[in-house]
Each structure stands twice: as structure tokens, then as C-alpha cells.
Amino acid sequence: MNGEHRHVNPWIVAIAVMISTFMEVLDTTVVNVSLPHIAGSLSASIEEATWVLTSYLVANAIILPITGWLANYFGRKRLLMMSVTGFTAASFLCGFAPTLPLLIFFRIVQGAAGGALQPLSQAVLLEAFPAEQRGKAMGFWGLGIVVAPILGPVLGGWLTDSYSWRWVFYINIPVGIGSLLMTRAYVFDPAYIRRQAGGVDWWGIGVLALGIGALQVMLDKGQQEDWFSSNWIVALLIVSIASLAAFVLWELRARAPVVNLRVFLDRSFATGTFLMTMLGFVLYGSLVLLPIWLQTLLGYPSLEAGVALAPRGLGSFLAMPLVGAMLAKADPRKFLASGLVIASLTLFRFGQLNLNAGYWDFFWPQFIQGISLAFLFVPLTTITMGHVAREQMGNATSIFNLLRNTGGSIGIAAVTTLTSRFQQVHINRLGEHVTIYSPNVWHGFGTSSKGVAQLFGMVQRQAAILSYLDVFWLLGAIFLALVPLVFLTRKPAKAAGPIAAH
After folding, report:
1. Residue of 341, 290, 299, 292 lying closest to 472 (CA atoms)
2. Domain extents for the chain?
């Protein structure tokens, strides 16, 4: 059966693996808008309900880096089917959960089962298509990775408002069944996928799980606990650093490492993975700001805010296939550099808006940014994997996806913290110039307690928007600073297939 996949149309294989991957990526954001409903339904606070998000992300992050090893141990097709089955079953149990602790437990199972789907789908696609068509394959893959997180809040808001928060999970069941049937029929293991000799690297798995888990919880709960003023957050940081350092040292000396870190010796892979980490940082960080801006400062309802965020997904949806098709005829590094510049300009544009911004002020920067993301994700994946040996493809895609998601988690934590700190700075600065004793303020608000409260509310809103603008300028500057790194990478090989290890 190992050779049967050669006779299957690669686009059928692409559809088979991308259905489940899109579903899994969607679930990282689709639950966000449902948290108040979940908390109310299960008699919990919003703070307690956020563990529904954290538990999923932690389990997902722990499985991601060991996916390549798991694929060799169980077989790629078998692992893919196990992951889809586990994710679908856990989705049903999440929707059925009568209490918050059970829901959190089933989300852990769902995150662990779904963690393998992103790197597996990427590895399958890179192998199903010849080298000259990998750009098209990565354009298709990028649709799920970029569009799903943007579509998630819209779909989640609509399902919750129209039906119930439980349907956010039930919707995965028919999708999972369809993906499972297609995977069984059209996806096959390549000849080089085989169980490696030697025992299981339990020490490596253990310290990796501890390090990644502690890091993810710290990033997710840090701002809420006021970061390093909390002994708990400090302890998580120490555990994470110590565990990950021990993991690196152990894996470099292990005979059969669970994650082969020597793939970083390839210059293009190392540089590309760093660029993808920073791309996750900026993209996910900016995705946090816009919904808050629209809902808290401009008064958009949650569903309307989700619709207002759709242009980014629309731009990516239109541009991804085109960029994928053009890559075969051009140097992908030029596409990548152009994408960074264009994306930075759209972030600078957001940094020029104010409280009077309308729908179209948000539409065009997002739409253009969506197009630029196609110039980023598709070429970057092609460049990063262009010189990776086919035997290391599963290992490489696992690391690549882990660091993208980790960059996103760090970006969300950093942006949330920076906006809070910047807002306090602007409140202090504006407060120095606006007091109830100023003539204009005296006539506008008076000195009553109600007038003072109105004045402080206005100062808070202005400080909030100024903090958002500061962060958008910072994110844009980060993208520009990454441009020179693009040319440290090598142009992808034009071989007929993945490079064999020697």
C-alpha cells in the first residue's frame, strides 16, 4: 500500500487533510466569543471559563513538537486517523459536558488529539506535490492556517447567538467524519515512514511537556496575574526555562531523540522558522487588538465586529492560490520581502486611525493585509522546507508549527500587556493637561461628580486608542526589521521531490 498514494490526485489528498486541519485551527478561536455563555450555563466565572481556552492550547502545544516522532512510531496515516477520531469524539463530549471541570478535561483531550493535525497535513502536502508545485500546495494549506482564526469568532458568535454554545463543538462532528473517510481512502504512508529502532525517549517527552505546558500557562495567565508580581507566574517561568534547557541538552545527546534539533543546522530552516515565529507574534497580536477596539471603543456588537474583521480573511482567500501558482516561476524570497513591507504599511495605517474611524477605514487595510499574508505564509513555508530531507519532513513541520503557535501566544501576551501599560502612561499624560479647573472642561462638564466621571471616561477612551496606535506602530516596525533576514535563506531546490537524507 505504500506506493498507492502515487496514483491519487494530489488535490484530493490536499482536501482530505485540510478539512480536519481547518477544523482544528478554527477551534483555537471559535470558542472565544462563547466564554460568557459557557460561564453562565455552567455556573462559573469568566476567569474560570478561560481555562477552556488555556487547557486546549497547552495540550495542543505539547503534542505539536513530537508529531514527527509519533508519525514514525504509529505510521503517519494511522496517526492522522487517530487524531481526527480523537478530535471529533472530544468535540462531541465537549458539547455534551454538564460541568466546567468535565468540559476542561475534554478540551485537553481535544487539544492533544488536534495537535498533530497541522504538522501532519503540511508534511503530507509537501510530499504529495512535486517540488515545482509545492507553492500551490502551501497556498492551499495557508488558507486554513490564516483564514480559520479570522473566521472563528464570526462562526462562534453566530452559532452561540442562533443556537447554543454547545453547537460550537457539535459542528465539528460531520466535518471530522468526512475527513476521516477521505483520509482512509486517499492518504498513504511513504516508504520511508517506519518505526525507528531503540526505546522511547520518555525523558525527552517528559521535560518537553513540562516546559511547553508551563510556558503556555504563563503566557495565557500572565497579564491576568500581573506577571512577575505573582509568585505563581515566576515559578512557571523558572520551570519552563529549566525544562526547555534540559530538553535541548538531552535531545542533542540522545540516540533516538523525540525531536531532532539538528534540523536547525540548515540555514534556511533556522532563519525561516524564526521568521515564522515573528510572523505569528505580529499576526496573532494584531488579531487581539482589532476586536477589542471595535467592541469596547466603537460599540460594535460581537457578531458585527466579527464581520468587520472578515476582509483580512477575504484578501488571503483570494491571494493564496494566486501566489502559490506564481511561486513556481519566481524567487519566493522576493515575494516574502514584499509581503513584509506591505504588511508593515497596513499596520502603520492602523496606527493612524482614531475614534471616528468607520467601517471602510478598517476594511481596506485589513483586505490589503490579507493579500500580504499570502505573500508571507506561502513563500516562507516553501523556503523553510525547501532543503529539508524527506525523512525529516515530519520532524521539521512539527517544529515549524510549534514555533509559529508559540510566537502567536507570546504576541498575544505581549500586546495585551503593552496596551495596558501604554494606556496607563497616556492616562497620566492626558490627566496632567485636562482637569476640572481648565476653562474648557469647566464649561463642558462642570465640577459635579457626574461631570468628573464623564471627563475621566473620555480620558480613558482617548488613552486606550492611543495605546492601540502605539502597539500597531511597534508591530509594523517589527515587520520592517525582519526584511534583511529574508536574504539569509537559500532559494528552494527545484528537484522533482523532497531531498533525500544522506
Report:
1. 290
2. 1-196, 201-255, 264-502
Name the percent of the chain in helix, strand, coil, to the closest 5.
80, 0, 20
Which of 195-204, 300-309, 442-451, 475-484 has the least mean pLDDT? 442-451
Q: What is the tens place of the pLDDT at every residue in 126-158?
A: 777 777 777 777 777 777 777 777 677 777 777
Contacts of 212 (CB under 8 A, 6+ apart): 58, 61, 62, 65, 240, 244, 402
Q: Is 293 exposed, middle or buried (0-12, 13-18, 19+ CB in 10 A)?
A: buried
For cell 472578515, the residue is 310
Task: Considering only residues 478 and 218, tell me which one the structure prediction assigns the higher pLDDT.
Answer: 478
CA-to-CA dists, residue 267 to 82, 236, 263, 272, 490, angstroms = 34, 32, 9, 8, 8
User: In angstroms, how far apart are the furthest CA atoms of the chain?
Assistant: 84
Q: How far is it, in rounded angstroms, from Cα 21 to Cα 145? A: 8
CATH annotation of 1-196? 1.20.1250.20
Answer for the pair 219, 415: CB distance below 8 angstroms, yes or no. no
Evaluate whether 324 touches 378 at the Cβ level (below 8 Å): yes
Q: Give residue 364's identity as a one-letter amino acid code.
A: W
Nearest-angstrom CA–CA distance, 427 and 429: 5
DSSP state of 259: S
Which three cell numbers, joined as nine digits, stand for 65? 513538537
Identical fold between 1-196 and 264-502: yes
**Smallest Cα–Cα separation from 492: which of 129, 11, 170, 96?**
129
Give the SS3 label for residue 387: coil
Mean pLDDT of 244-257: 85
pLDDT for the residue numbered 439: 60
Residue 500 in this model has a pLDDT that exceeds 70 = no
Percent of the chain with pLDDT over 70: 87
All three cell numbers of 111: 487539544
Q: Does domain 264-502 have CATH number 3.30.70.100?
A: no
Which of 74-88, 268-282, 289-303 is the least confident region?
Answer: 289-303
Q: What is the CA radius of gyration of the chain?
A: 23
Per-residue model confidence (pLDDT) at position 321: 80
pLDDT of residue 452: 57
Tracing cell 470558542 back to the chain, one arrives at 31
Residue 438: is its pLDDT beyond 70?
A: no
Dihedral of CA 61/64/65/70: which sign?
positive
Instruction: Report H helices in 75-201.
Output: 76-96, 100-114, 117-128, 134-162, 167-170, 172-186
CB atoms closer than 10 angstroms to residue 336: 27
296-310 residues labelled b (16+ CB within 10 A) or e (exposed): ebbebebbbbbbbbb
- The whole model's pTM is what? 0.78
